[in-house]
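YM 10:42: Head decoration protein sequence, as discussed on the call
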Amino acid sequence: MSGSNSYGFYPSAQQTTFVPDQLIAGNLKLVTQDVTIGAGQTLLRGSVVGKVTATGAYILCVATATDGSQVPAGVMVDAVTTAAGTTGAGSIYRQGEFNSNYLTFDASWTAATLTAAAPAPIYVKTALSNTIV
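YM 10:58: structure's back
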């Protein structure tokens, strides 16, 4: 570094490129909520989760479940992994427009059935996109 000063701070600037992941598919205001994630879950950003009625914990939404988690209740903000027998903390989007091509959902769903089942204000859209260059 050129120059010197008595406090060891040298001003500088850095530049990075932001590349969005295209999970968000519209301008609807995003609303988040901190929740408890059920035990034994590996949830990625964009995973569709449902709420287990008995425990109040959120797990991957499966259309054939019968514990309450069969109803889409949110979309994971960030990835969360919990160990077997241990719950964890995470955040979900409670409101927003989401690109079905970037959602992670159980094989019991299709994009069409998930779109139909998702309660307002969770809107699932199939967006068209170009290759990012």
